[in-house]
Queue: 2 jobs
Job 1
Amino acid sequence: MNLMLLSFISLLIGNHCYFIKSLLKSKSSTLSLSTTASSSNAISDKVDLKVKVAETVLNTIFSIKPLYNIAKSKARDKMIQQGANIGVNWNENKRLLEKDFDKLQKNYDNLNNNLNYPEYYLKPFHAYDEGNLSWQAAMEVESAALTVHAPIFVPKGDLSINGDFELRDNFHKNMKKNFYAKI
């Protein structure tokens, strides 16, 4: 299971930072004990086993729809509150887009006449039962990005609305660097 999936699962259970830090701490403290290739492989196997056990437990818990819905709701509330803490007015941002919904729907219909999306695009994802191509997801994507990226590239424990900008700016700088290196 990759770190992004672990982050999502832990966000659903409402302990995002604690859960990921615990896994990473467990992995790094265990790995720091390794001195040989064979012990490193054994430790890596232990970490993989911990992740597989966590994945199995969480998948089992979240296969129970009422538990999943409770966790999803708590995670959503936590994200909206984190956004408010850094100045993101989640509900107002959504309201501003909703007031032009008829125009948005008309533009969507004009552009989307003959598009067929892969099935996985339309499956439940994060907090959206209809997937990330739903109107709810579209109207919340900016607020969600600002909120989720808030702790990136800022001092430990701080939240900043600039985290999203820093993430994207860093990505673009690295893409340019890689692009020009290949020319």
Note: Residues 105 and 135 are 9 Å apart (CA to CA).
Job 2
Amino acid sequence: MRKEPFVAIDVGTTKVCCLMGHVEDGGSVQVLGVGLSPSKGMHKGLVVNIDEAKETIRESIREAEHSSGLLISSAFVGITGRHISCANKKGTVATVRHDRLVMPSDLERALEAARRVEVPPDKKLLHVIPRQYVINGQTRVKNPVGMHGVRVDLEAHVVTAGVASVQNLLKCVRGAGVDVEDIILEPLASSEAVLTPDEREAGVLLADIGGGTTDIAVFREGSIWHSAVLPVAGYQITRDIAIGLGIPFEVAEEVKRKYGRVSLDGEDLEAETINVAPGHSILYKDLCEIIRARVEEILKLTLLELPRFNYKSIIPAGVVLTGGSSNLPGIDSLAREIFELSVRVGKPRKVFGIADEVLGDPAYATGVGLLLWGNNHKPGEGLPSQGFFANFGKALRRFFFRLRKLFIF
């Protein structure tokens, strides 16, 4: 476990969140600094303007440095987008010892075998996460070290990402003067912050409904079972409000945040009006109907990620909603109707520190989860291989970081 602070950068469609924190021995996260800035140059999790995205990231980093009193040299960065794809692959190796005892080196070789999957030229491996081992036909083995076996079969969850999308994101973060310790699929990060061990073991679906994408992760028997990214989320809700009610997008976003609900609380609210501009008002009922229609579509698309037959047996622990759009009142009730399972809104757990807005807000689940991921996993697994010029640039950034630290402190 690292003793120095971790830094996480969640580059979203609507906001960039930079968190600096320290993970305590018990797994709690102490937030030391927070930087928030409205996102520019991003759309549906993808970089569409490098200069704008770079400046937005730089602004959030400055704010986090100011609030913590510390300089940031490197960070764990989340990634999402429709370029993400996943599959479950197997790796098989024979044990090499005469007594046929399984050793850690055997597990490493099995993991390398699972990594040797055919990846298209425009894709790169982002994660290869062990799910379970099979030793001589015995399934569901979590840690086979010390067991007797002729061969080791590893089933791993393999996540790939578009090379161009990864490189664009890395260019923006590094262009803001910060090295990238690792790049992590966002639903995996969010799961670290909001899911309980019991939910992971029993079977649970996580839906992180953000601004530009809905990130999905299914866990069973304590391991990742399926992950996906849907290109619909809060942005589409706001756009529907703007088009349906004839108001500017910025006004629609403000109305959604201030008054938006998935369902009305009572019949007396149906006739209420909301003044959105001088001389212009909308019906509360119309606003809620538009929001409900789009949220229902998002939830049904999420359900389609599960097998149609007997999906309830896969996720008996139910559904956990997180992300900024899960703050819409009534979204959990609608999800219960659609999934016919227990549903809760997942908020970051075991978080304390200077930032009250981070504590208990689903919008910051990914940022907090990135800090936890950095504490629990080996860094660098999702990064592209570093060539000479990349390493030279990294050394140059470290030099200027030390120079900046010398003059500021």
Note: Residues 385-390 have pLDDT under 50 and may be disordered.
